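FORM 7B: Structural annotation worksheet

SECTION A. Query
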Amino acid sequence: MLFLLACGPRLEELPEPGDWTTEGPGGPQVAFDEADIGVACASLYGDPELESEHHNLVVMHDGYLLMPWAPESGGGGLAWFDVSDPCEPVKVAEVYDAGMRESHTLAFGWVDGREYLAVDSIRDEGARGGVGIWDVTDKENAEWVAEIDLPEFLYPEAYFWVSLSTFWQGDELYVSAGLLGTYVIDVSDPLNPEIINHVGPFVPQVVGSMHVLGNVGMSSSAGAAKTVMYDLSVPGELGPIAGGDWDVRDEEGDVVAYYFANTGGKYGLFARKADLGGPIVYDISDPSEPTWVGGFLNAEGDGGYVFRHEDRLFQGESEFGSIYDFSDPANMTEIHRFDLAGDMDTITPIGNVAVLSVDSGAVDSLATTMVPWDTAIDARGPVAELTNPADGATQVALTARIGLSFDELLEIRSVHSGSLRVWDGTGAAVPGRFNVQENLVNFTPDEELLPDTTYFVSVPTGGIADSTLNPTEDELRFSFSTGAEIDEWPSR
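SECTION B. Predicted structure
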């Protein structure tokens, strides 16, 4: 360990914050007129011979928009599009595998210089399934390279006995699997994934997703009210955090079910369901005491998935998709409502365009559409609102990871050793690996941290960028210690 730290790069030897590139041009770079707002200007489609018209979220990946397309029953693929002109999208690559099923998250990981993507899988008409892994290093030749079945997987029991989402951090992949609970899979060798832990769900909880920030995981439900915060500071282990087990509640304080959850900055976001819609928001800065912040009751909605983009929330409401003004989280308002035929559960913000998707009942070739929601090209960089460890934290575990939660979706390629810097008081940079999933960034050190040592973390100006390649505008820095005391920030 000492040898690694001593012989690793010095802080001054790290790349510049902006020393990164993307193959694609990034998100939308077109301004719109007021008359364009809310009017679909293009649609995205998979292979016309194989397309199921069952779509979900999209993300920006290497400067292109990545759209998965697969039904619950299996058989689907990935398609990458140049959306710099969102009304004239250009498909640049596409792959298909019969084992891919509907995925509610896209979990990326780098291992030995290759990039992998973990999605949900299914085989033998639903008799088995779990997680499939794509090698997406070369998107034009992406390949399904591995899969692992979960014990007791069974479809068509919908959300009860199947994998629903994945989250990749370091060597661990967290798999949320309904009533099967949460699995931890060792993906240090993505070609040979291995289950290393399993935690059953808290009752009543149908585990829908796990969002990981450093050493904390937020395990949320799919169609229930329960949410559980976990201590993940020991790799592979999930320790429930005292006070972090709660039922989501509405404006009246009554327990309310939500369809799916997400994070955005310092907030947990919950899409209220069951003949009522609108977002419910909790402050999760203190995982031992999540705090109700606000909500908007949409009497005509029925929540699906929810995303944050700066001071706006985007939520699919089954019959339509809504944008909510989030500039005052305690007093949200609905400001836009968009329609798309079918079960419209997902509205993903990509710059000044909303990507609307339906996961069943789509009109032919209209399962995903591009809809302008703002006239101006997105020009503001992302802001990190929450870190783990927190600034000033002491007695941090030697096995700790470092996480940052931003207020909007990010470009994966922008996160590297120059845009997220970690070093000790001697100026020795800590080597490690990065994972980016939607708005969350995680750094996993290659080796355990040193005892009684203060570590310093910086996101410099011009570093991490959003989906339209706008970089951070102000430096973020924080420090923590593995001992009882924390050193002062070093002078420059």
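SECTION C. Observations
The helical segments are 2-7. The longest helix spans residues 2-7.

SECTION D. Sign-off
Analyst initials: ____
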